[in-house]
Amino acid sequence: MDQSSITPNTSNQQLVINGDNDSATALLHEKQSRRRITLSDVTFREYMTIGILCFVNLINYMDRFTLAGVLDEVKADFKIGDDKAGLLQTVFVIAYMVFAPIFGYLGDRYSRRLIMAFGVALWSITTFAGSYIYTYAGFAVFRGMVGIGEASYSTIAPTIISDLFVDNVRSKMLAFFYFAIPVGSGFGYIVGSVVGGAAGNWRWGLRVTPILGAVAVALILWVMENPERGQAEESRMKPTSYTEDLRSLVKNPSFMLSTLAFTCVAFVTGALAWWGPQFIFLGLTLQPKVNITQESVSYKFGLVGMAAGALGVPLGSALAQRLRVRMPGCDPVICAMALLASAPLVYLALAAVEHAGGLSYFLVFLGMLTCNLTWSIVADIVLYVVIPPRRSTAEAFQILISHMFGDAGSPYLVGVISESLKRASSPTESPSLRVQFRSLQYALFVTCFVEVIGGIFFLLTSLYIVKDKQKVDRAITEAEVQSAEPSHSNAPEEDIGGE
Known about the structure:
By secondary structure, the chain is mostly helical. It contains 19 helices and no strands. Helix 2 packs antiparallel against helix 6 (136-164), helix 10 (253-285) runs antiparallel to helix 13 and helix 10 (253-285) runs parallel beside helix 16. The longest helix is centred in the middle third of the chain and has 33 residues, at 167-199.
């Protein structure tokens, strides 16, 4: 593809006249030379800010998957099947993705501290209140409200990291931040199963994270640093209109292709995270002389997920940092190889459950490990192929697309396929345990094909990634040159937004 046909990451207005190109190039080289910072240069308050963001991200995902750890009890309490059980997660994700663009727009223009504090308070209150709702429809409504609150935090937190750090330090901090996702998810299974089991009521598992959420709100309001947008890159770019923001993102090939690839990741992780514990439980019950409970399976599944995330997320970041020196466009290639390796591992894990539980847990670990390699790398890609005043919108747009076509529908889709297969196998009687297991197994096989598709999208991203990153670096630098030499500009300063 002719690279000249790709819309550059600069404003539709010319940022600087051609005579300023030498100045912009010199300034770009100077700024890049100043970016050779290490973790020893990070201040205590910046470490505190990262710690707070990671803490909130951890309890965010704890809250999201606490319900999955007690799904069997939830189904029994509300007297629902796999389809309606999957719909609970779908309702949450739909609300999450629909409100993400709203918070993305606000996050690029207003106080990110207040927006995040509001969001965390909202999902904490609605999670706690929802635990006292005893009708399925009412409980589903409250799960949707939880999604609204979580959307505010997830769209904005990564942009704060991008405004505090650059280059490899940013990559390390993003790895730390996204490390909290699989670990928090694992804690969600554990908290849901352990607390619910101890109390004899699954609803008590939902009442743990709201307490931690209250602490998080206080930390966000009074401790967390709130940097200027583009501070780390010394950017002086101004926000542009929302229409121009969206037009730019759609024309950005690296952003769009990596978003489609991450949509496949979201589809797979959403389906496996929601149905994994129950599927393993069904498979193990088919083995002779096995005495297990749903709580014990959720607990082990949570530990496996935490271990896979604890290794996978930082490993992916470390690989990217190491290979970038020799291969600048390595990020999407690493993600592609990770998904293509994960697909057969997930298939083998799904096939091994009824025969060898230990082997299945090990294969689940490997499948999760390879999939988790992508998390921090994808976040890094979004931040370095999009200019600073547009990053919250980019995060929100990616959340909208990846959840709309990913985990918003995958738990429900798997549940619908499973229920359809059960009815086809046992049209006139209640399905046996083996029929329930086999139906859910066949439904989950869909995830393996989706991972392969995701790997292909990441490979396509690698064709554009270097050029798009260079365009962002140059756009930031040209805007700074224009700000320093206003008499040379063809456009007023308020028109400078960058694309």
